[in-house]
Amino acid sequence: MDNIIDCRLDSICKEIYTGIWQHDYGQILRITGVDLPKAVEVQFSLRDKGGDTLTRIGTTVDGVTEVKVPDSFLKNENCTQNYLIYAWIYVTDDASGNTEHQIILHVKSRPKPEEPSEEPLPEPNIFHETVEAVNASADRAEMAEQSAKGSAEKAETTLAEIKRVTDGISEDIENANTEKSELSGMIDGAEEKKKELVASTEEAGETKMELDSSINSAGEKQLALDATVKQANAVDASLKEQIGSAEQIQANVEQIAKNKADISSLNEDIADLKDKKITKFYASNQGENHLVDSDNGKIQDMMICGNSNQNQTKGKNLLKYPYVEADKTSLGITFTDNKDGSINVSGTATGTAYYNLYSNRDGKRLTLASGTYKLVTKGRSGCNVTVNNGVISAKNEGTFTITEGHNEIYCYIAIQEGLTVDETIYPMIQLASSIDESYEPYTGGKPSPNPDYPQEIKRVVKPVVKVCGKNLWNPIAGGYISNLNGSITASEKSDIATTDFIKTNGKDITVIARNFSLALEYAFAYRIGFYDAEKSG
What we know:
Low-confidence stretches: 118-131, 516-521
Number of strands: 29
Largest sheet: 8 strands, mixed
Number of helices: 3
CATH topology of the largest domain: Jelly Rolls
């Protein structure tokens, strides 16, 4: 189990971003990079200003200082979001006390673990209890041996005393010898028990070694299984990509075949039009229209003129969207997601409020390839926008470089306690080589429109196109136009014909008459009269 939080102090203030979760306990903060006393005060707090601190004593050995983080701050009841633990290194002597360094621990929030009170007690650690029992038995054997030796010495003393007192009490001497023999047997029995206990201890040690070997083997098998799963996922993704490419190729082949058929059909239509008069016209969204003729020819083409617009992006914004938190209110600050990647921030902060920009709704953390990038925060004034990967950081506006192995990015908005804000921030991460810093929404890091990020085309709304391609000459046989008022006069001649009521953009009514003419060698002469609604020429 890794309960060590490494912190190398290379500045007065150091932030730690990884490895700490809410409800952990027994966490040790290991401090290197500075020369601290053998015993030093480390003061902890959940606030960076005001309030009280909890003091813990850190011990320094060979330039490494270790101190336990208060479990109550890691538990932090009723906290449902990521938070900070502040630690100050406080160096004192007989005459003074100085705050030398500040360490900020970023703690990731998680659900509270279930209390184990209703669960059955865990199985005892058999190996641990065996070792304790062996040690206890060995202690008892050693005490018995010492007691037996003491009794033997006492018996020998007693026998000597008896011999000195009287040589005639043989029975007592014999009893004393018997007692001595029994005591010697007890000593021998104690020695045997001691040997058995030593053998049991050695056997327990071998059992522990076997268990350690089994645990290491299980860990190696788990690593191999993880590698196999990762390889399987990569193969699956590759297969899906190849299947998608094959489907796209098939769709392209079908579309090409359809296009060839359409082109062939159009060529046939154009061939049919070679000997016929073609009518061309156009209409615009300004209320204009143009019609050259109204013959019976087919329409060759039609043009509708109007304005259209489609948003386009260069794909320069690399800050993934949508964010995981969306709209939320925290510590007096309301964060509103404007659905285009911008965030409106308003309110007065009752504590340091944060908005997470580095976790996304797809469940993936923001990662960047190795390279140099630029943080752009248009619209920001009072808030702070920070990007950090645990090695380097940039705040509000600036460049930063990502190196291999440190590709996971933390990016967030922070509002300090007591600050009142009302602003809309347009956060964006782009390549440092990009000169254009104008904001654009996230479109997968590639230009749009694209299949994943289509863009709406804004166009002429409900255009009206009127096609007049029919012949308006519909003669009335046996009539001609009166020269006086434009009325039609009946005639018995079948070669005289007139059409009435043809509306144009000029006079209200146009009357066209076809009259037979001997002067034109039996051809037809056409007369056109323009009249208003009362047929006044």
